Amino acid sequence: MKLRFMHALLALILAHDAIAYTPLSDETLKSLPRPGDDFDIKSGTILSPILIPRVPGTPGSEAVQKHFVDYFTTHLPNWRIEFQNSTSKTPATGDKDVPFRNIIITRDPPWAQPGDVGRLALVAHYDSKLTPAGFIGAIDSAAPCAMIIHAVKTVDDALMKKWAEMEKEGTNGLEEEKGLQILFLDGEEAFLSWTSTDSLYGSRSLAEEWESTPHTALSTHRTALSSITLFLLLDLLGSANPHVPSYFATTHWAYQYMALIEARLRTLDLAESTPQEPFLDGNRKSFGGRFGIQDDHLPFLDRGVEILHMIPSPFPTEVWHRIEDDGEHLDMPTVEDWAQIFTAFVAEWMDLEGYLPANAKGANVKAKRITSKTEL
Predict the structure, then answer these.
(1) Known catalytic residue: 188?
(2) Distance CA 20, CA 195 (A)
(3) Does residue 235 carry a catalytic annotation?
């Protein structure tokens, strides 16, 4: 009965929003691999290298940048890696310019020109706060970065299969071109205290540059900024019992899809976490617009980009901006469930039903947890 109700709800959403969005079948949801050892906080190939202090312009920041580049070069070589660099003075560094490096990683249909592709942007900041000394920022935002990598790793083969089939059948180029773009943003955190100039260093620079950099003539999208169909921003995710409302009326439909994915995972007994309430609720709204939570979406929102913001309200104050925000304080069932939700959302957005493996190796396997103290 509950599954029938959710399917009926999905039909209503689809009827309301005329978009190309294909829900995954129950069998495909069951086959999605969990992060498992990749998210081991000591040795995981995705998460553990991010669990270090990574203040902009420091060796820790450079090490995490190298991790991202090395991981994609080795495991996802078909993704295009670019950098957008800027510098700025900060209240903590006086006249010294601090370097900020945004990392842009893109996967478009192989036949499409960059200006003709509308992209789902998967966004998280990778920098950490200057204070307290040694701050790691596991929920803020090492874990969100890892969730994004897991999601695209999971769907990459399916994307190749779908696009190869389209080329073989001659159907490529006959519909709206869709791609994926990862934005790992630098300099989200304030160096001293949050103001409009001491925060969002990387996102402010990138949004300004992309707005003023046109695509070639006759492109479907005028600029790189207008190529973003949806800006999905992840932040402060990884603590138990998160409550994430829908923040924007214009993307509430996408929030509803995300909430439905979570509900289906729980109904199918595929979720590991046992929250007091669902992470997401289609009726949980907090439409604050420009005057809501301050985060990396603001420079893009101000330029007309559609935003889906995945950040808890209230913030997880037991660890937020505290030294306790480290790997040992992550609630790993929650972290892995978020990864599953985002993976399914990406797969549905890219219409990958029928292209994902039916019995993925390692699907829904519970990983051994490492709980010893992370030392620098």
Answers:
(1) yes
(2) 39
(3) yes
